[in-house]
Amino acid sequence: MNHNEQLKLENQLCFSVYACSREITKMYRPYLDQLGLTYPQYLVLLVLWEHHETTVKALGAELYLDSGTLTPLLKRMEEAGLVKRERSKEDERKVMVHLTTKGEELREEASIIPDAMAANSGLSKEEFKKALTGFQQLLDHIHSVNEK
Amino acid sequence: MNHNEQLKLENQLCFSVYACSREITKMYRPYLDQLGLTYPQYLVLLVLWEHHETTVKALGAELYLDSGTLTPLLKRMEEAGLVKRERSKEDERKVMVHLTTKGEELREEASIIPDAMAANSGLSKEEFKKALTGFQQLLDHIHSVNEK
DNA sequence: GATATTTAAGTTGTGCACAATTTAATTTTA
DNA sequence: TAAAATTAAATTGTGCACAACTTAAATATC
């Protein structure tokens, strides 16, 4: 591929991933609107439904987000009564984040989302799994390149 | 997969795409910083390097963005001397966007980016092409689902 | 040919992302 | 153990994204 072809939008992997990510988020929106959640807030809940309690730091490591993004986001979620934030007694640099009853209960309502989204994606179970694995590998690789 | 497994972060295709998109953008950043561009601004230039002149509407159709995003973005690019915006004489609802000499000249400097990024991605030529095709199909599909 | 509808861009307001900096607590090391 | 370095969150400022709305021009319909 020559330089001219390489600079065409249609040949950019970066763009197809970027556009795909935003279209996927749009696909979630009607479902998340019903729960009063944004997409990043939903991701935070996915982590908390699994671990129940975590720190801002650990949450950031899972979601590839920093405190600059998470602090205001978690404040909004606390405002909405979904999570509780409190300074750790053992290490006062850390802030513990855990679910409230309301946040815990949303799990039940959210449980239908994955099936609905998988169906909307138009991918078979095998394609879905293959795409997931491919992405996680690419993510790992690029993340390690970026760390350097 | 049961509901419990389905709600784990590690099984979300949406998350791996979302995180991948942001990590890819980070990979571009040092290169784009040198050109004084943000990632979406780079995408606008990719379109303009190909078409030279377009409208806000057409640009939005290519990039899946609306005027709410593009108008301020294009104003910043105009401020930076990269593009020129002017109302169409034939149809005064439309705003034509075209490159300035400076915007045109950036193409040369940007021409090294695709090779550098492809190398950083760690994908072979075949893997890259396969991933690109897979994504474009997924993007098309989800976009058409979202339209309804 | 006047009125209604549609279209294109811009505006307003909210919520991420993220770089850069600040503050405060903990750990290291001299 | 006092000083230096590191760590965790929070803060500040900029730039997207996008929903909802406004404005103005063009097209359709009556």
Report on this structure.
The structure is a homodimer of 148-residue chains. The first copy, chain A, is mainly alpha-helical and 148 residues long. In chain A, 70% of the residues lie in helices and 9% in strands. Chain A contains eight helices and three strands; from the N terminus they run αααβααββααα. Chain A has a three-stranded antiparallel β-sheet with strand order 1-3-2. In chain A, a hairpin with a 7-residue loop joins strand 2 and strand 3. In chain A, helix 2 packs antiparallel against helix 7. Chain A is globular, with a radius of gyration of 18 Å. The mean pLDDT of chain A is 94. The interface between A and B is large, with 56 and 56 residues. The structure holds a DNA duplex (30 and 30 nucleotides).
Name the average pLDDT of chain A.
Answer: 94
Q: Which spans of chain A of ≥5 residues are poorly predicted at pLDDT below 50?
A: none
The main sheet of chain A comes to: 3 strands, antiparallel
User: Count the helices of chain A. How many?
Assistant: 8
Strand elements of chain A, count: 3
Note the quaternary state here: homodimer
Shape of chain A: globular
Portion in beta strands of chain A: 5-15%
Q: Which chains share the greatest interface?
A: A-B, 56 and 56 residues
Taking Cα atoms only, what radius of gyration of chain A do you get, to the nearest Å?
18 Å
Structural class based on helices, strands and sheet pairing of chain A: mainly alpha
N→C terminal distance of chain A: 29 Å
Spatial ordering of strands, largest sheet of chain A: 1-3-2
The topology string of helices and strands of chain A comes to HHHEHHEEHHH
Portion in helices of chain A: 55-70%
